[in-house]
Write a structure and sequence with these properties.
Blueprint: H1 2-9, H2 11-19, E1 22-24, H3 32-52, H4 62-71, H5 73-103, H6 111-133, H7 138-153, H8 158-166, H9 173-205, E2 220-222, H10 223-248, H11 272-280, E3 284-287, E4 290-293, H12 294-311, H13 313-316, H14 328-358, H15 365-369, H16 371-374, H17 387-395, H18 399-411, H19 413-416, H20 434-437, H21 440-449, E5 455-457, E6 460-462, H22 475-487, H23 499-503
Helix pairs in contact: 3-5, 3-10, 5-6, 5-10, 6-7, 6-9, 7-8, 11-14, 17-18, 18-22
Length: 507
C-alpha cells in the first residue's frame, strides 16, 4: 500500500527525507519556538475558518453575530481559543525572534531567512490589529479608531491609506469589510506564502545549531525522533495553556460600538508599549521657533526606524562569530531594548487604566449578553434604558421629563453620569450647574451644536468634547432632555424648554 502511494506520488520518501534532517549538536528545547509558532498558526487558521461560518461582516450584523457566537457554548469556546491563540502566536513569534537573535542564527548565510521572519512578525501584528475590530464593540471601535488615525498621520501616503483602510471618511460597514478582507484573506495568504519561503530557506541552509565557532566538533543529531518529540511536546503544552485560558478567562464583549459615546480604548497587549510611548511624550516639543508634533515621532518615526534596524540586522552586525562573548555589545543592547519595551508596556497599561477609571464604566458581560441589550439600538424602547438609569426614569415626575429621562439615559448618562453628577476632570456635572439652569437659549445651542471650549463648573475646569446632537436627536427629544436636565437633576429647578424653542434656535 505505502509502496503503491510512493510509486505514484513520492510522498513517503519526501516524508522520510523531511524527518531524517540533520540537527547539528543534537536536539534541544531551544529550538521549539519556531515549530510552536507554526502550530499556533494552524490553530488560528482552523478556528478562524469555523468562525467565518458564524460571523457576518457589516455594521448592522458584526456585533450581533459576535454576540450570538458568545451565547452558544461551543462557538464561545471557539472564539476564546482564537482569541488566546492569537496572543500565544504573537508571544511565540517574539520568543522565536529573541532566540535567533541570542544564538546569532541570523548571520550569513541565513540573512534572508531572518528578513522573511521579520516580515512574518509584521503580518502577524497586522492580523492582530485587523482582528481586533471585527467584534465591533466599544473597545474594538475606539481602539481601531486610534490605529486608523495613526495611519493617517504617516507622511505623504498616510491620509490616503487611512481613507482606503477605513473605506471612506468615517468608520462603518466599509471599514469592517476592509478589515475582514485583510484578516481572513490577504494576511493569511501572505502568512502562508511567507511561512513557505521561511521553511524552504531553512531546509536549504539547515538548522544553525548551537553557538560554537567550529561546527565540525558537533556531534550530528536527527530531527526524528528527538527534536520531533520535543517540538510536539512543547506545542501540546501550548495548546493546553490556550484551551485552559479559553475556558477560565474568555474574552469580554462590550456593548455595540456607538461613536456618540465616550470610551477609553484598551489596546491589545502587544501594542501597549506604543501606547505607553505615546502617553509619555509631551504633545509638542519646542526648539526655539520650531515646534515639532511628537505624535508623529512616537507613532510612526520611532517604530519605523526600529523596524528598519531589525530588518537590516544581519548586515549591521557583520562579525562572523556567533559566540556569546564576542557579541556582548549586541546582547546588552537587546536586553536594554526588551527592558524598555516592558517598561513602556507597563506604563501604557497604567495610563490606560487610570483613564478608563475616570471614564464611564463598561457594563458587566451578563448585561451585554442579556436579551434587553439587543433592544439597545432602538432608542426609546423600554429595554433601552440601562439598569443604572432606570431609577432616574421612574423617579421623574411628569411624562415629559419621563421622556427626557430616557433620552438622557440613552445619550448623555454615559458621560455626564446617571444622575448628572459628571466625572471629575473629564465631564462636567449637569446637576447644580448654573449654566444648565441659566439662559435656556444657551443650553439649546450647546446641545444642538456640541461644545469644545474649556468650561468651569463650580471651580473645576473641564476641557473635553461634547458631541453635537442636531440630526442625531429630534427637536422634540432635545427639548425633552433639556427640560429634564434643567428641572430634575440635583437641585435644578429651571423652566422647561419647548420643541418650538429648539426649532427656532438662533445663536
Ligand atoms: C461623549 C461624551 C458626552 C456626551 C455623550 C454628552 N456630553 Fe455634554 N458635555 C461633554 C463634555 C466633555 C462637555 C464639556 C465640553 C467642554 O469642555 O468644552 C459637555 C458639556 C455639556 C453642557 C455644558 C455644561 C457647561 O457647564 O457648560 C451641557 C448643557 C451638556 N453637555 C449637555 C449634554 C446633554 C443634554 C447630552 C445628551 C443629549 C450630553 N451632554 C451628552 C461630554 C458629553
Amino acid at each position: 500500500m505505502l509502496n503503491w502511494i510512493e510509486k505514484r506520488t513520492g510522498f513517503i520518501s519526501m516524508a522520510q527525507d523531511f524527518l531524517t534532517e540533520d540537527v547539528p549538536g543534537g536536539a534541544s528545547y531551544w529550538y521549539v519556538f519556531g515549530s510552536a509558532t507554526l502550530f499556533t498558526m494552524m490553530i488560528q487558521i482552523v478556528t478562524g475558518i469555523f468562525l467565518t461560518f458564524f460571523y457576518a461582516p457589516s455594521a448592522m450584523t458584526a456585533w450581533e453575530s459576535t454576540r450570538a457566537i458568545y451565547l452558544n457554548p461551543w462557538t464561545h469556546f471557539l472564539i476564546s481559543v482564537h482569541y488566546w491563540g492569537a496572543s500565544a502566536m504573537i508571544a511565540l513569534v517574539f520568543l522565536h525572534l529573541l532566540q535567533v537573535l541570542i544564538f546569532g542564527a541570523y548571520k550569513s548565510p541565513r540573512e534572508l531567512q531572518w528578513v522573511v521572519g521579520v516580515l512574518l512578525l509584521l503580518v502577524t501584528l497586522v492580523l492582530g490589529l485587523t482582528g481586533y475590530l471585527l467584534p465591533w464593540d466599544m473597545d474594538a471601535y475606539f481602539a481601531s479608531q486610534v490605529s486608523l488615525n495613526i495611519t493617517g498621520l504617516a507622511p505623504i501616503a498616510g491620509p490616503i491609506l487611512q481613507h482606503i483602510a477605513q473605506g471612506g471618511g468615517s468608520m462603518g460597514t466599509a471599514t469592517i469589510n476592509r478589515f475582514f478582507g485583510l484578516h481572513v484573506w490577504l494576511m493569511p495568504a501572505a502568512l502562508v506564502a511567507l511561512v513557505g519561503a521561511h521553511l524552504a530557506i531553512f531546509r536549504h541552509n539547515g538548522p544553525a545549531g548551537p553557538v560554537v565557532d567550529d561546527t565540525r566538533t558537533l556531534k550530528p543529531g536527527r530531527f526524528w525522533p528527538d527534536q520531533f518529540f520535543m517540538d510536539g511536546a512543547f506545542s501540546l503544552i501550548i495548546f493546553g495553556i490556550i484551551c485552559f485560558l479559553a475556558i477560565v478567562s474568555p474574552p469580554y464583549l462590550d456593548q455595540k460600538a456607538d461613536p456618540t459615546k465616550f470610551f477609553v480604548p484598551y489596546p491589545a497587549w502587544y501594542f501597549l508599549s506604543l501606547f505607553g510611548l505615546l502617553a509619555l511624550v509631551p504633545p509638542e516639543i519646542h526648539l526655539g521657533p520650531l515646534s515639532i508634533g511628537t505624535e508623529l515621532i512616537a507613532t510612526i518615526i520611532v517604530p519605523t526606524i526600529f523596524l528598519i534596524v531589525i530588518l537590516l540586522l544581519p548586515w549591521l552586525d557583520r562579525s562572523k562569530s556567533r559566540s556569546i562573548a564576542s557579541r556582548s555589545g549586541l546582547l546588552w543592547g537587546t536586553t536594554v531594548v526588551v527592558g524598555v519595551i516592558v517598561v513602556l508596556s507597563i506604563y501604557g497599561q497604567a495610563t490606560t487604566m487610570i483613564k478608563q477609571a475616570a471614564g464611564p464604566p463598561s457594563p458587566p458581560e451578563s448585561v451585554v449578553l442579556a436579551p434587553a441589550a439587543a433592544a439597545e439600538t432602538k432608542p426609546g424602547s423600554p429595554g433601552a434604558i440601562p439598569a443604572n438609569a432606570a431609577g432616574v426614569a421612574n423617579a421623574a415626575p411628569s411624562t415629559t421629563s419621563g421622556a427626557g429621562a430616557s433620552v438622557f439615559a440613552n445619550n448623555c448618562s454615559s458621560c455626564h453620569g446617571a444622575t448628572g453628577q459628571g466625572v471629575p476632570g473629564s465631564f462636567p456635572p449637569l446637576a447644580n450647574n448654573p449654566v444648565v439652569t441659566g439662559d435656556p437659549n444657551k443650553v439649546i445651542g450647546i446641545v444642538l451644536g456640541g461644545l469644545n471650549a474649556p468650561v468651569t463648573v463650580n471651580g473645576q475646569s473641564y476641557h473635553g468634547m461634547m458631541p453635537p446632537w442636531k440630526g442625531t436627536l429630534t427637536n422634540k427629544e432635545i427639548a425633552d432632555v433639556i427640560t429634564y436636565i434643567r428641572g430634575s437633576l440635583g437641585n435644578n429647578k429651571a423652566s422647561a424648554v419647548t420643541e418650538a424653542q429648539v426649532a427656532g434656535y438662533k445663536p
